[in-house]
Write a structure and sequence with these properties.
The structure holds two protein chains of two kinds.
Chain A (H helix, E strand, L loop, with lengths): L9 E2 L10 E4 L4 E4 L5 E2 L1 H17 L14 E4 L6 E4 L3 E5 L6 E4 L11 E2 L6 H9 L18 E34 L2 E25 L6 H6 L9 E2 L9 E3 L6 H22 L5 E7 L2 E21 L2 E8 L5 E3 L5 H28 L3
Parallel strand pairs in A: 9-15, 10-13
Antiparallel strand pairs in A: 1-8, 2-3, 3-4, 5-6, 7-8, 7-13, 9-12, 10-11, 10-14, 10-15, 15-16, 16-17
Chain B lengths: L1 H45 L28 H6 L9 E3 L6 H18 L2 E7 L6 H13 L13 E7 L6 E7 L2 H4 L2 H10 L1 H5 L3 H18 L8 E3 L5 E3 L8 H23 L17 E19 L13 E3 L5 E4 L3 E2 L1
Parallel strand pairs in B: 1-2, 2-3
Antiparallel strand pairs in B: 3-4, 4-9, 4-10, 5-6, 8-9
Helix pairs in contact in B: 3-8, 6-8
Classes of the chains: A alpha+beta, B alpha+beta.
């Protein structure tokens, strides 16, 4: 496996004013230089970048080594010259010595070039605040779990998503019952009319997102949905500055199946719902088929928060566009038992008092 | 001389004859009198009784010998209430009961009182009314402002059947006072009202009232019904819960508390779990993109089932229907019947 890997190029955004590294600032929605304070839009940055492109092209990252299993590769940091080591999936990372962003351009070119991107809107501090706010309404969270000191790692990652437009068409067959009841004199009647019900048509779903990276748990990525796809913009490497990025390693039938299953389930629901006059409906079969009408590759912003509590790792994620913060909080079992006992005692006492009051007023 | 003797004998015979004739006449007169008396008695027994009332306006405390206070609020009620001899037990102001029937019923009422220490009163009157509650007011005032149960206990226990013979809408109901409220629960009164309906509806009053007294007597023998357990009477004869008899439902409360705590704790546990697999895609479809073009509703079959609902009224209803009279005293009643 010691095969040679062609040289890679790391892209680095530089401030047109002072040449220091410049990052995308989610708060202002522009690129902001942390040294001279200058702010630039992508267009402005691109203009300057084009001028310097000839010079940049000459600088190439030298591939140093590749490990014997995964394609670990290292690059030379443009800023300080130190080695940057990254695995095969990493598309943007940081130099561990000077902290500069290194965008591994070749990881995001050719077939790996994303079509769209939603830039970060939420900052690191927003994710920390959301994590600290987890205790609200969750009394069974272990004490101090949401303390900032438990955050082992927090990083902004552009996660590769496949966005599928799917057309579902076909028929759904159901057994439907209409039950009517009435009373005549002392006799109560129940009439059941049985029908064979068919509902069919077509439904067009737009941009069902499926996480294209095997490194991130699909359920977590499902849980931070939905993203507002109105804000999707054409992809540009420049947005990656200041964040990590991944390239997809899952595609094709497996990923499509996930999206199409969701579309099929929702179509069944909607067709079933549309048969409104029935008291009970039992689905007996369908001829529904899905067709992929469009597929886009998009980078979506997520704050990944790794929390270490009692020597166990817990992963949280924040939709860096909407601020939706999710993750599984461990259960404080002692608290759960205590709550059970307290609620039991309170309910028991209330029940006895209520029964006494009910008794006393002569119910 | 023979002639004198003959004359004397003749006179003696005549005298005896006259005496015997006279004596015979007297016997005939006696037997005629007896027959007349018997006839009169039969006539009297077959005649309808007419209950007499006394004027209470001039009496001390308006003739109310019970503990009720007479105030401006109830003075008119007292004055309106007929004042009767409390020993009669059967009061017929409509003239529907014959004297012999009256005697029988009164005898039974006295026996009932002797056995139960409770009065049993039958009141028949022609009372125009617009709502059923007017019957109740009338009946409870009649009981409260007469001397019924005065010699029994502080709550003047007793039961009163009021038959309103008001032609437009005849009504009858049973009212209970004092301890009778415990023995004759709503359900028992309802059953009795049902049982005597046909008799009263068909004006077979003697039969109906008899079975009313029998029914009350039988219920008394059965003791206080279970639904009235835990009730007692307050100072004014109102039913109230006997708090001493309260038994906390520990088992039920344990189940309720267990289920409630389990549900709440499960909800709280669920709040800690935010990661869920998404199996639907309804967020990614617009209304306009849903096109349902095929709608088929093919009728296959139909069937109808039926069952008969029992219309028995005896088992329904709560433990009692309690009210206050104008006297402030408590009483209960059955549901009442029209007919």
């Amino acid at each position: 496996m010691n095969e040679k890997v062609v040289d890679e190029q790391a892209l680095e955004n530089k401030c047109p004013s002072c040449k220091a590294s410049i990052k995308f600032n989610p708060k202002v929605g522009k690129f902001k230089c942390e040294y001279c304070g200058s702010e630039f839009t992508l267009e402005e940055l691109q203009k300057h970048s084009d001028n310097a492109s000839t010079e940049e092209k000459n600088k190439k990252e030298e591939k140093v080594e590749k490990d014997n299993f995964d394609a670990y590769v290292s690059y030379k940091c443009e800023s300080c010259g130190a080695e940057i080591v990254a695995d095969d999936q990493t598309a943007a990372t940081f130099c561990v010595y000077c902290g500069n962003t290194a965008i591994l351009k070749s990881k995001l070119s050719g077939q790996f070039t994303p079509d769209k991107i939603i830039p970060f809107k939420k900052e690191k501090q927003d994710a920390i605040t959301a994590f600290k706010g987890l205790s609200k309404g969750r009394p069974l969270m272990p004490k101090d779990f949401n303390s900032e000191k438990n955050i082992e790692k927090i990083k902004g990652v552009y996660i590769p998503f496949w966005l599928y437009d799917i057309n579902v068409s076909g028929d759904l067959t159901m057994n439907g019952d209409i039950v009517t009841t009435w009373t005549s004199g002392d006799t109560h009647y129940t009439k059941t009319d049985k029908y064979l019900v068919v509902r069919g048509g077509t439904m067009d779903y737009h941009k069902i997102p499926v996480d294209g990276s095997s490194r991130f748990d699909n359920d977590i990525m499902n849980s931070i949905e939905p993203f507002n796809f109105e804000e999707l913009i054409p992809y540009n490497h420049a947005y990656l500055s200041g964040f990590y990025a991944e390239k997809y390693d899952e595609e094709g039938e497996k990923v499509y199946k996930e999206a199409s299953e969701r579309a099929l389930n929702s179509t069944r629901d909607k067709l079933k719902e549309s048969a409104t006059r029935y008291t009970t409906k039992i689905v007996t079969g369908d001829t529904l088929e899905t067709k992929e009408t469009k597929k886009e590759y998009a980078m979506l912003p997520v704050w990944m928060v790794n929390v270490k509590y009692n020597d166990k790792m817990h992963i949280f994620a924040m939709n860096a566009q909407t601020g939706e913060f999710i993750g599984n909080i461990p259960l404080d079992k002692k608290k759960a038992v205590l709550y059970f006992i307290i609620i039991f005692v309170i309910t028991f006492v209330i029940a006895i008092i209520a029964s006494f009051v009910f008794f006393a007023i002569g119910g | 001389m023979k002639k004198k003797i003959f004359l004397s004998i003749l006179i003696v015979i005549l005298s005896f004859t006259m005496i015997s004739v006279y004596a015979d006449e007297g016997d005939t007169q006696d037997s005629n009198q007896d027959a007349l008396d018997q006839l009169q008695e039969i006539n009297e027994n077959n005649s309808f009784i007419k209950t007499e009332t006394k004027d209470r306006s001039s009496l001390s405390n308006l003739g109310v010998n019970k503990k009720w206070k007479i105030t401006d609020n109830n003075r008119d009620n007292v004055l309106r209430t007929k004042y009767v001899n409390a020993d009669e037990k059967i009061y017929d102001f409509s003239g529907v009961i014959k004297k012999s029937e009256y005697e029988d019923l009164r005898k039974k009422a006295l026996e009932f009182k002797e056995k139960t220490n409770m009065e049993i009163i039958i009141l028949i009157d022609d009372l125009p009314y617009t709502s059923d509650s007017e019957n109740e007011d009338y009946a409870s005032d009649f009981y409260d402002y007469n001397d019924f149960g005065l010699d029994l206990d502080k709550n003047y226990s007793g039961v009163l059947l009021f038959r309103n013979t008001y032609e437009q809408d005849p009504y009858y109901n049973i009212y209970t006072f004092g301890e009778a409220q415990l023995y004759f629960s709503y359900n028992r009164l309802e059953n009795t009202l049902d049982d005597i309906y046909n008799s009263l509806h068909n004006h077979l009053y003697y039969m109906g009232f008899n079975s009313f007294i029998d029914s009350m007597s039988n219920y008394y023998d059965s003791g206080i019904p279970s639904e009235m357990n835990g009730y007692t009477l307050d100072e004014t004869g109102h039913l109230k819960r006997d708090l001493k008899s309260y038994k906390p439902p520990y088992f039920m409360a344990t189940i309720i508390a267990f289920v409630t705590s389990l549900i709440i704790v499960l909800i709280l546990i669920k709040k800690n779990k935010m990661v869920m697999k998404e199996t639907r895609a309804e967020k990614y479809i617009n209304k306009d993109d849903i096109k349902i073009t095929n709608k088929q509703d093919n009728f296959i079959s139909s069937h109808t089932t039926h069952y008969t609902v029992s219309s028995s009224s005896g088992s329904s209803g709560g433990g009692f229907s309690s009210s206050s009279g104008s006297s402030g005293g408590g009483h209960s009643s059955g549901g009442g019947r029209h007919g």
